[in-house]
Amino acid sequence: MNQTLSTILNHRSIRKFTDEVIEEAQLSHIINAGLAASSSSLLQVVSIIRVSDKSKRATLARYAGNQAYVEQAAEFLVFCIDYQRHAAINPDVQADFTELTVIGAVDCGIMAQNCLLAAESMGLGGVYIGGLRNSAQQVDELLNLPSNTAVLFGLCLGHPDQNPEVKPRLPSHVIVHQDQYEPLDMNDIDAYDSAMQQYYATRSSNQKQSKWSTQVTGKLAGESRPHILPYLNSKGLTKR
Protein backbone atom coordinates (compact mmCIF):
# COMPACT_ATOMS: atom_id res chain seq x y z
CA MET A 1 0.00 0.00 0.00
CA ASN A 2 1.39 3.43 -0.92
CA GLN A 3 1.40 6.46 1.38
CA THR A 4 -1.58 8.11 -0.33
CA LEU A 5 -3.80 5.07 0.20
CA SER A 6 -2.57 4.71 3.77
CA THR A 7 -3.51 8.33 4.52
CA ILE A 8 -6.97 7.92 3.00
CA LEU A 9 -7.79 4.62 4.68
CA ASN A 10 -6.61 5.77 8.10
CA HIS A 11 -8.84 8.85 8.22
CA ARG A 12 -10.28 9.70 11.64
CA SER A 13 -12.16 12.82 12.65
CA ILE A 14 -10.02 14.78 15.13
CA ARG A 15 -11.86 16.91 17.67
CA LYS A 16 -9.07 17.61 20.15
CA PHE A 17 -6.00 19.61 19.20
CA THR A 18 -2.74 20.77 20.77
CA ASP A 19 -1.89 24.47 21.01
CA GLU A 20 0.70 24.15 18.22
CA VAL A 21 0.07 26.38 15.22
CA ILE A 22 -0.03 25.24 11.62
CA GLU A 23 2.88 26.80 9.78
CA GLU A 24 2.01 29.19 6.96
CA ALA A 25 3.86 26.95 4.48
CA GLN A 26 1.74 24.00 5.58
CA LEU A 27 -1.47 26.00 5.27
CA SER A 28 -0.39 27.16 1.82
CA HIS A 29 0.07 23.52 0.74
CA ILE A 30 -3.36 22.66 2.15
CA ILE A 31 -5.08 25.51 0.29
CA ASN A 32 -3.23 24.79 -2.94
CA ALA A 33 -4.28 21.14 -2.69
CA GLY A 34 -7.87 22.35 -2.45
CA LEU A 35 -7.46 24.65 -5.44
CA ALA A 36 -6.11 21.72 -7.46
CA ALA A 37 -9.37 19.78 -6.96
CA SER A 38 -11.70 18.97 -9.84
CA SER A 39 -14.16 21.74 -10.72
CA SER A 40 -17.30 21.28 -12.80
CA SER A 41 -16.67 22.98 -16.18
CA LEU A 42 -13.89 24.89 -14.40
CA LEU A 43 -16.58 27.15 -12.93
CA GLN A 44 -14.60 27.36 -9.65
CA VAL A 45 -17.63 28.26 -7.55
CA VAL A 46 -16.08 27.88 -4.09
CA SER A 47 -14.85 30.48 -1.63
CA ILE A 48 -13.01 29.68 1.61
CA ILE A 49 -13.18 32.02 4.59
CA ARG A 50 -10.18 31.57 6.90
CA VAL A 51 -11.43 32.64 10.33
CA SER A 52 -8.63 33.71 12.68
CA ASP A 53 -10.46 36.33 14.77
CA LYS A 54 -10.92 34.82 18.24
CA SER A 55 -14.25 36.50 18.87
CA LYS A 56 -15.67 35.27 15.57
CA ARG A 57 -14.34 31.78 16.31
CA ALA A 58 -16.14 31.73 19.64
CA THR A 59 -19.35 32.92 18.00
CA LEU A 60 -19.09 30.31 15.24
CA ALA A 61 -18.51 27.58 17.85
CA ARG A 62 -21.75 28.64 19.51
CA TYR A 63 -23.64 28.84 16.20
CA ALA A 64 -22.44 25.32 15.34
CA GLY A 65 -24.01 23.87 18.49
CA ASN A 66 -21.34 24.71 21.07
CA GLN A 67 -18.63 22.64 19.37
CA ALA A 68 -15.58 23.83 21.31
CA TYR A 69 -13.04 22.59 18.76
CA VAL A 70 -14.24 25.27 16.31
CA GLU A 71 -12.69 27.75 18.70
CA GLN A 72 -9.70 25.63 19.74
CA ALA A 73 -8.39 24.33 16.40
CA ALA A 74 -5.29 25.94 14.94
CA GLU A 75 -7.20 26.83 11.77
CA PHE A 76 -10.88 27.07 10.89
CA LEU A 77 -11.94 27.26 7.25
CA VAL A 78 -15.50 27.94 6.13
CA PHE A 79 -16.46 26.62 2.69
CA CYS A 80 -19.06 28.55 0.70
CA ILE A 81 -20.85 28.23 -2.62
CA ASP A 82 -19.86 31.38 -4.51
CA TYR A 83 -21.43 32.69 -7.71
CA GLN A 84 -20.88 36.33 -6.76
CA ARG A 85 -17.54 36.38 -8.60
CA HIS A 86 -19.28 35.30 -11.76
CA ALA A 87 -22.11 37.81 -11.34
CA ALA A 88 -19.52 40.56 -10.86
CA ILE A 89 -17.88 39.57 -14.15
CA ASN A 90 -21.18 39.31 -16.04
CA PRO A 91 -24.49 40.64 -14.67
CA ASP A 92 -26.38 38.24 -16.95
CA VAL A 93 -25.27 35.28 -14.78
CA GLN A 94 -28.33 33.36 -13.53
CA ALA A 95 -27.20 31.69 -10.32
CA ASP A 96 -30.67 30.74 -9.09
CA PHE A 97 -30.93 27.36 -10.86
CA THR A 98 -30.96 24.40 -8.47
CA GLU A 99 -28.41 22.64 -10.68
CA LEU A 100 -25.90 25.39 -9.93
CA THR A 101 -26.40 24.97 -6.19
CA VAL A 102 -25.80 21.24 -6.60
CA ILE A 103 -22.61 21.97 -8.55
CA GLY A 104 -21.46 24.36 -5.83
CA ALA A 105 -22.09 21.82 -3.07
CA VAL A 106 -20.29 19.07 -4.99
CA ASP A 107 -17.29 21.26 -5.75
CA CYS A 108 -17.08 22.46 -2.13
CA GLY A 109 -17.00 18.86 -0.94
CA ILE A 110 -14.31 17.87 -3.41
CA MET A 111 -12.15 20.88 -2.57
CA ALA A 112 -12.52 20.43 1.19
CA GLN A 113 -11.62 16.75 1.01
CA ASN A 114 -8.45 17.62 -0.90
CA CYS A 115 -7.61 20.11 1.85
CA LEU A 116 -8.19 17.57 4.62
CA LEU A 117 -6.20 14.84 2.89
CA ALA A 118 -3.32 17.25 2.36
CA ALA A 119 -3.42 18.14 6.05
CA GLU A 120 -3.54 14.50 7.13
CA SER A 121 -0.60 13.69 4.86
CA MET A 122 1.46 16.15 6.96
CA GLY A 123 0.44 14.57 10.26
CA LEU A 124 -2.32 17.08 10.96
CA GLY A 125 -5.96 16.24 11.62
CA GLY A 126 -9.36 17.78 11.25
CA VAL A 127 -13.11 17.48 11.38
CA TYR A 128 -15.92 18.89 9.24
CA ILE A 129 -18.48 21.18 10.89
CA GLY A 130 -21.86 20.87 9.19
CA GLY A 131 -23.34 22.37 12.35
CA LEU A 132 -22.72 25.84 10.89
CA ARG A 133 -25.92 25.28 8.94
CA ASN A 134 -27.82 25.19 12.25
CA SER A 135 -27.52 28.98 12.15
CA ALA A 136 -26.81 29.56 8.47
CA GLN A 137 -28.20 33.09 8.33
CA GLN A 138 -26.28 34.20 11.43
CA VAL A 139 -23.03 32.66 10.11
CA ASP A 140 -23.68 34.36 6.78
CA GLU A 141 -24.06 37.76 8.45
CA LEU A 142 -21.02 37.27 10.69
CA LEU A 143 -18.83 36.50 7.66
CA ASN A 144 -20.42 39.24 5.53
CA LEU A 145 -21.30 36.95 2.63
CA PRO A 146 -22.71 38.71 -0.45
CA SER A 147 -25.63 37.69 -2.66
CA ASN A 148 -25.19 34.52 -4.74
CA THR A 149 -22.93 33.15 -1.98
CA ALA A 150 -23.94 30.77 0.82
CA VAL A 151 -22.24 28.97 3.72
CA LEU A 152 -22.05 25.17 3.53
CA PHE A 153 -19.72 23.85 6.26
CA GLY A 154 -16.55 24.45 8.21
CA LEU A 155 -13.31 22.52 8.60
CA CYS A 156 -11.22 22.47 11.80
CA LEU A 157 -7.53 21.75 11.28
CA GLY A 158 -4.71 21.31 13.77
CA HIS A 159 -2.18 19.05 15.42
CA PRO A 160 -4.04 16.05 16.91
CA ASP A 161 -4.18 15.67 20.67
CA GLN A 162 -6.03 12.35 20.46
CA ASN A 163 -5.67 9.09 18.57
CA PRO A 164 -9.18 7.72 17.94
CA GLU A 165 -9.81 4.38 16.31
CA VAL A 166 -10.84 4.19 12.65
CA LYS A 167 -14.63 3.98 12.48
CA PRO A 168 -15.99 1.03 10.47
CA ARG A 169 -17.80 1.80 7.20
CA LEU A 170 -20.46 -0.12 5.35
CA PRO A 171 -18.83 -2.86 3.24
CA SER A 172 -18.12 -1.99 -0.38
CA HIS A 173 -20.60 -4.52 -1.77
CA VAL A 174 -23.43 -2.62 -0.06
CA ILE A 175 -22.33 0.66 -1.64
CA VAL A 176 -21.14 -0.49 -5.08
CA HIS A 177 -23.77 -1.87 -7.47
CA GLN A 178 -23.02 -3.75 -10.68
CA ASP A 179 -24.75 -2.45 -13.82
CA GLN A 180 -28.01 -1.69 -11.97
CA TYR A 181 -29.28 -0.86 -8.50
CA GLU A 182 -29.48 -3.97 -6.33
CA PRO A 183 -31.93 -4.48 -3.42
CA LEU A 184 -30.58 -4.19 0.09
CA ASP A 185 -29.74 -7.40 1.95
CA MET A 186 -30.71 -6.77 5.58
CA ASN A 187 -28.21 -9.41 6.67
CA ASP A 188 -25.48 -6.98 5.61
CA ILE A 189 -27.05 -4.28 7.77
CA ASP A 190 -27.31 -6.65 10.74
CA ALA A 191 -23.63 -7.53 10.37
CA TYR A 192 -22.66 -3.87 10.15
CA ASP A 193 -24.79 -3.01 13.18
CA SER A 194 -22.89 -5.67 15.12
CA ALA A 195 -19.55 -4.27 13.96
CA MET A 196 -20.56 -0.76 14.98
CA GLN A 197 -21.80 -1.91 18.38
CA GLN A 198 -18.47 -3.61 18.95
CA TYR A 199 -16.64 -0.45 17.86
CA TYR A 200 -18.70 1.79 20.16
CA ALA A 201 -18.28 -0.59 23.11
CA THR A 202 -14.51 -0.93 22.82
CA ARG A 203 -13.28 2.44 21.54
CA SER A 204 -11.07 4.44 23.87
CA SER A 205 -13.53 7.31 24.45
CA ASN A 206 -17.27 8.05 24.38
CA GLN A 207 -18.29 4.41 24.59
CA LYS A 208 -21.97 3.74 23.95
CA GLN A 209 -24.44 1.11 22.84
CA SER A 210 -26.07 1.98 19.57
CA LYS A 211 -27.11 0.35 16.32
CA TRP A 212 -26.05 2.28 13.24
CA SER A 213 -29.30 1.50 11.45
CA THR A 214 -31.47 2.74 14.31
CA GLN A 215 -29.34 5.83 14.85
CA VAL A 216 -29.27 7.07 11.24
CA THR A 217 -32.84 6.20 10.27
CA GLY A 218 -34.07 7.89 13.44
CA LYS A 219 -32.22 11.02 12.40
CA LEU A 220 -33.64 10.85 8.89
CA ALA A 221 -37.19 10.34 10.19
CA GLY A 222 -37.26 13.88 11.60
CA GLU A 223 -36.89 17.37 10.19
CA SER A 224 -33.53 18.22 8.68
CA ARG A 225 -32.82 21.96 8.91
CA PRO A 226 -35.98 23.15 7.10
CA HIS A 227 -34.62 26.71 7.21
CA ILE A 228 -31.93 25.89 4.63
CA LEU A 229 -34.16 26.27 1.55
CA PRO A 230 -35.41 29.75 2.49
CA TYR A 231 -31.84 30.69 3.42
CA LEU A 232 -30.55 29.63 0.00
CA ASN A 233 -33.47 31.40 -1.68
CA SER A 234 -32.60 34.58 0.23
CA LYS A 235 -29.08 34.40 -1.24
CA GLY A 236 -30.44 34.14 -4.79
CA LEU A 237 -29.87 30.37 -5.03
CA THR A 238 -32.10 27.31 -5.66
CA LYS A 239 -35.14 29.25 -6.86
CA ARG A 240 -35.93 27.12 -9.94
UniProtKB/TrEMBL annotation:
The UniProt record lists the keyword NADP: yes
Residues making up the signal peptide according to the UniProt record: none
Record EC number: 1.5.1.38
Record key words, sorted: Flavoprotein, FMN, NADP, Oxidoreductase
Classification via SUPFAM superfamilies: FMN-dependent nitroreductase-like
Limits of the Nitroreductase domain: 8-159
Protein family: Belongs to the flavin oxidoreductase frp family.
Protein name: Oxygen-insensitive NADPH nitroreductase
Organism field: Vibrio ulleungensis
Gene: nfsA
